Amino acid sequence: MKFRDARTIPPEQLYKRRKQAIALCKKGMNFIEIAKIVGVRRDVVGRWYAMWQEGGMKALTFGFSGKKPPRLTLGLHEKGKKDIC
Question: Domain spans of the chain?
Answer without folding.
Answer: 6-84
